[in-house]
Amino acid sequence: MTFLWYIPNQVDPGHRGDDAGTGHNSLDRLTELARLTEDHGWAGALLGTGWGRPDTFTVATALAARTTTFQPLAAIRPGYWHPAHFASAASTLDQLTGGRLLINIVSGQDNLAAYGDSEGAQPQRYARTKEFLQLVRRLWTEEDVTFTGEYFGVTGSTVATRPVVREGRPHPTLYFGGASDAAQRVAATDADVQLFWGEPLDGIAERIAKLKTLEQQLDRQHPPLEFGLRITTLVRDTTDQAWADAEAKVAQLAAAQGSRDRLWFKAVGQQRLLDLHDRGEVLDDNLYTAPGKYGGGGAGTTWLVGSPEDVAKSLIKYRDLGLTHFILSDTPYRDETVRIGDQLLPLLTAG
Hints:
The chain has helices spanning 27-39, 56-65, 83-96, 122-141, 181-190, 201-217, 239-257, 268-275, 290-293, 308-321, 333-343, 345-349, and strands spanning 2-7, 44-47, 71-76, 102-105, 145-148, 153-157, 174-177, 193-196, 226-235, 282-283, 287-288, 303-306, 323-329. It has 351 residues and is α/β, with parallel strands linked by helices.
């Protein structure tokens, strides 16, 4: 199993309850967080993307230069990058770091007009993502590439600096998310790892089965799709303390924001998480759905709550479904990088 953390490259301090001190996104602070992942059992960390954040790829490059084993999982958007430019930048960074780069392809909504991009409806958005993935793979593994698609094209293109190649790794691993039918078809044919948000076990099992069926139906040409989980993990020494702290955090969210209209976010995957609250505040053993009712989004919508043993037991159940990549987080990021790395990861990696 691969365990990654999350580093919040944000302009504004206090992301999801993080410490709101000065210099929160300075190079020294971000480097400290990256080095803590190295020291406390993590393979690396996800760096999110979106217009209005510090540029994710620049942050990933800076942190890779200041660490030795840290693997940045850099989130990038096909409309923000042209595939040839991205293939060159990514393979250069991968070569310079000895093959430490990971990529998370994001096709969700963004302020596209701010950087001169535009998109059609959902099917067109994912059709463009599919072309992006196909062209980047070819540029990483072939020479003299000519490609003419509906959205992108190159003629006689060769990336001068090649990615690091290892057994089972022809290029940086391509992570991908999305729960819509269009997104799942792209994942089944062109991604390396499908990331799920924190759904109950039955929902994840259902989605894995569908993706495996799509792999066969759509004639996937790459090694079998792998699966991962991106989720908040609130871990404390005891079960009672974990739930007391989780309920206190949700009370703070409720006081600050109130109950949210569930239509505020239109992505299929996000809506699936928000709808879980109708099934109950706690699903499976310790999947807490209340945060989504009060403004949680993405990995903050549902939390796994409990002692290290409680959360490890739950993550092992996800592993038994076939998940091998885990991206965890909680705030304050500095403290929880250490706590969860020291208390939870050994229970998952022993033996």
